[in-house]
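Subgroup meeting minutes
Present: P.N., E.W., G.H.
Scribe: E.W.

1. P.N. recapped why we're keeping a running log of single-chain structure predictions: easier to compare across weeks, and new members can see raw inputs and outputs side by side.
2. G.H. added today's entry (103 aa).
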Amino acid sequence: MGTRTSGSEGGGEQTTARKRGTAARLRPYIEIVRRTQRNVKRWSSGEMALRWTAAGMLEAERQFRRIIGYRDLAALVVAIERDHDRRRATHTTSKEAAIVLSA
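Output recorded in log:
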């Protein structure tokens, strides 16, 4: 995955991932995984590659910063789902009323 498009594809414009800074945020993460894997001399199978990748991800995870209020994220998800369900029920009710009025 390149960080820029080729000249023929868009005049050198930056890709969407690059514009949002996703590539820059993932770069240190990917480097830690690569550093973990570089000591492996003989890859015996795809399963082994997955295990070493997982080991690198666990190593990188230790360096992540916690999101402020991360303990409250589960409650936020529940509140969003509840609001979404309420809005969908209201929208469905208004659709049914419009069908009854038009009939």
